[in-house]
TrEMBL record:
InterPro entries: IsoCit/isopropylmalate_DH_CS (IPR019818), IsoPropMal-DH-like_dom (IPR024084), Isopropylmalate_DH (IPR004429)
Assembly and interaction partners: Homodimer.
Reactions mediated catalytically: (2R,3S)-3-isopropylmalate + NAD(+) = 4-methyl-2-oxopentanoate + CO2 + NADH
GO biological process terms held by the UniProt record: L-leucine biosynthetic process
Named cofactor requirement(s): Mg(2+); Mn(2+)
Species whose genome carries this gene: Arenicella xantha
Keyword terms: Amino-acid biosynthesis, Branched-chain amino acid biosynthesis, Leucine biosynthesis, Magnesium, Manganese, Metal-binding, NAD, Oxidoreductase
Protein name (Swiss-Prot/TrEMBL): 3-isopropylmalate dehydrogenase
Similarity section: Belongs to the isocitrate and isopropylmalate dehydrogenases family. LeuB type 1 subfamily.
Stored Gene3D superfamilies: Isopropylmalate Dehydrogenase (3.40.718.10)
Annotated metabolic or biological route of this protein: Amino-acid biosynthesis; L-leucine biosynthesis; L-leucine from 3-methyl-2-oxobutanoate: step 3/4
Amino acid sequence: MSKYKIAILAGDGIGPEIMQEGIKVLKVIEQRNEVEFDLIEAPFGASAYFSHGSSFPEETQRLVDLADAVVKGPIGLSHQESKKIPVDQQPERGALLPLRKRLNTYANFRPVYLPKSLAHFSPLKAEVIGEGIDIIMVRELVGGLYFGAKEMGVNDQGKRYVREMLEYDEDQIAAILHEGFKLAQSRKKVLHNIHKSNVLKSSVLWNEVLEEIAGQYSDVTVIHTLVDAAATALCLNPGQFDVMVMENMFGDILSDQGGGILGSLGLMPSACLGENGKAYYEPSHGSAPDIAGQQIANPYSMIGSMAMMLEYSFNMVDEARNVWDAMQSVFDAGYSTADLSKPGSGIKLLKTADFGDKVVQHLMANN
Ligand SMILES: NC(=O)c1ccc[n+]([C@@H]2O[C@H](COP(=O)([O-])OP(=O)(O)OC[C@H]3O[C@@H](n4cnc5c(N)ncnc54)[C@H](O)[C@@H]3O)[C@@H](O)[C@H]2O)c1
Ligand SMILES: CC(C)[C@H](C(=O)O)[C@@H](O)C(=O)O
Ligand SMILES: [Mg+2]
């Protein structure tokens, strides 16, 4: 019997609601495999700030250090509410970025997936979706603008100013590019390198490093695309992309655009991987304060993140596949949550918990 300790950080907004559905799925996986999941909940995010005085309390820090994997719901407050917390202690700066740094999860895999049969979820025309969308965005997660030196103050002319640095060294760049190349090798052997070397020196170094290591992956074709052009191409012809590799900020923005072309951020799971098995799993989206507490959020992103954990942290590849298939079966049967079931769409509406229940039913049926 394998035993795994999983830190459960439910987070804010819709976090607890969608986490609940992911846990339902893990319980099923546990029942039918020689595996035991020790699920340990811990405070994290704005809710933790209010209850414990810190958005990443020490007890949670200790837990993520010893856990075999961490699953995390989205954190954060609405723009207005966030003013109740001092800027540096807000959960994005005070919890999420420190979690990424602590586990050194430099490689963030964000699948953007929509089979042809679900093209009606997308705001794009069926002919634009073509044979479907099947992209994995590989985002560098512990460098760049997010973690560079920052300074704010008043300059010699008495003007307030800010300076934040986009910093990378060659090892950080090589590490994420290797991830992109290896993934491309296991898929269509095409790597879209997303950059902005016409302006940013960071992209010039990025591309230099890419040229240096590309020889190790001679079976992979590299296609260079400027990030702004990539944004357009994602809307006009998403089918041209397979593996896209990019720095932190580009990946943040393009992955949300990925959710847009699918039809909902609720379809965006992700895996954040580091060295020596360190990993955490989270939806790509935020805490959705506009719909929190109403049981209308789509838990696909959270359940999908758990499927990625089964595959990457526990090597339970078949069960991960079963989870994806079960979610697909719910959609194929004509159901979805409110984000994808607009009035008149003909799609039968499910509450958050009902979606989780249906996934469980399909999983059990596929035993
Ligand atoms: N990794 C994270 O924890 C993370 C990621 C992004 C944003 N945030 C934080 O979340 C807060 C809200 O940010 P935002 O409103 O800009 O973005 P958001 O991703 O929370 O929401 C954007 C839109 O997508 C919808 N949406 C998101 N997830 C959904 C789901 N599972 N099902 C159905 N609809 C869904 C929301 O209702 C909203 O209309 C902010 O505090 C932000 O900093 C956290
Ligand atoms: C909340 C925020 C810090 C985070 C990011 O920008 O990385 C989020 O938008 C994401 O995409 O995970
Ligand atoms: Mg984002």
